């Protein structure tokens, strides 16, 4: 089965039709998605601003990341679940959307970023190397900004 065939099948499922054609389900899921992006994005922004040395300098990077970790996870899980539900209701549109594929590529790069910097910056109990932390923060901001912009542009792809 090709990816397009899978998307065509998925779009005809009862869940897809219910979300897409229901009066309230899509806007409720979309609203929750946006609120979770705000929560998750705020935690990412706070971490990155600290790693770049642009704010919250009295807090150690390790302490701040530890304090925000739970909230970041909660926001991230809700973003993923609601994002999957939103994708479920219009998979054929997403299949043909250049912005969607850019967003997915950037999400994969976030995974690479996490693999590279997890141990030395985000998961370290010792203070991370300041230059490595700045690089991690800068790349994180760049990737997440790209994800937000490309995600927003999906609505304008035809």
How would you describe what is shown here?
With 158 residues, the chain is mainly α. It has one domain. Helices cover 80% and strands 0% of the residues. The protein contains 7 helices and no strands. Helix 2 packs across helix 4. The two termini are 25 Å apart.
Overview features:
158 residues; mainly alpha; 7 helices; elongated
Distance between the termini: 25 Å
Instruction: List segments where confidence is low: pLDDT < 50 over at least 5 consecutive residues.
Output: none
- Helix/sheet category: mainly alpha
Number of helices: 7
* Silhouette: elongated
| Proportion in helices | over 70%
Give the helices and strands, then pairings.
Layout: H1 3-11, H2 14-21, H3 25-51, H4 61-89, H5 91-95, H6 98-122, H7 130-153
Concise structural overview:
With 158 residues, the protein is mainly α.
């Amino acid at each position: 089965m090709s990816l397009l065939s899978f998307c065509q099948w998925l779009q005809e499922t009862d869940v897809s039709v219910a979300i897409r054609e229901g009066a309230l389900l899509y806007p409720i899921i979309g609203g929750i998605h946006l609120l979770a992006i705000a929560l998750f994005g705020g935690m990412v922004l706070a971490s990155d601003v600290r790693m770049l040395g642009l704010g919250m300098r009295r807090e150690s990077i390790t302490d701040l990341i530890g304090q925000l970790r739970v909230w970041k996870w909660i926001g991230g899980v809700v973003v993923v679940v609601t994002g999957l539900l939103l994708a479920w209701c219009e998979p054929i549109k997403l299949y043909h959307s250049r912005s969607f594929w850019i967003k997915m590529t950037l999400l994969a790069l976030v995974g690479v970023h996490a693999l590279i910097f997890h141990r030395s910056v985000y998961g370290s109990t010792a203070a991370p190397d300041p230059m490595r932390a700045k690089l991690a923060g800068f790349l994180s901001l760049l990737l997440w900004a790209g994800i937000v912009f490309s995600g927003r542009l999906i609505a304008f792809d035809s």
